[in-house]
Amino acid sequence: MQYLRPFTPPSPAQHEKLTTRLTSANMYHATSYQRLLHYLTETPTALSAGDLSAVTNIPLPTTYRALRRLADRGLVDWYTDKSAVARWYAVRSGHNKNYCTACNRPYVEHE
């Protein structure tokens, strides 16, 4: 696991934005959705589900289910890196191309 900044709960203003995003995507406001979406929104690089599980203190199976549901609603997306690991990132509004700020590599579309 790479060095990850510790999880900090969202501020009241951030919580309101998360709630609005989840509501607009017709999703429940489950704690796992909020924690994962908040951390991915605040993190500039894409992360594996294992890293997200460890840093947000959400069990790995729950992390996978939550990420798939968030992806189905268009709030997060993923790509497969060179070592065949799925890396998850938040879809940011107004950006037509997402890229890794660490290596400046665009996230490729998956099938």
From TrEMBL:
It holds the Pfam family HTH_IclR. GO terms for molecular function: DNA binding. It comes from the Bacteria. Residues 35-76 form the HTH iclR-type domain. One of its GO terms (biological process) is regulation of DNA-templated transcription. This is Winged helix-turn-helix transcriptional regulator. It comes from Jejubacter calystegiae.
